[in-house]
Amino acid sequence: MYTGGCFCGAVRYEAGGPALHCTWCHCSMCRRLCGAPGVAWFSVPLAQFRYVRGQPAVFHSSPGVRRELCGLCGTQLSFADERTPWEMDVTTCSLDDPEALPPQDHTFADYRLHWEHIGDELPRYRRTRGDGLLERA
Known about the structure:
The protein is mostly beta strands. The protein is 5% helix and 42% strand.
């Protein structure tokens, strides 16, 4: 079981089941929504994810995409896409122990900022994993 929540503690969650798709996303939406060069995410089966304290605010960042965040402190917590209704993506650094789920690859690597150096040997995908491998460092 993975546990986590927002910065202020108003919203807490539990995520069970196997963690899937641990990634470091470099897309422009993640950057702008979190105010960071990239965001680490992991996925769990939707049936294994639940909020245990508070309820998040919901923001539809694009058609079919729902992002959930704390309405008080603004911490982005989750991402749901209607194209994959069986899973929930969760921000890794909202975990109580983010060291437990390090990224296993980089997605949207073509979109990273030119000054952001990737210094690991993880696989890099142009966009999504389905769009093919860009390079392996």
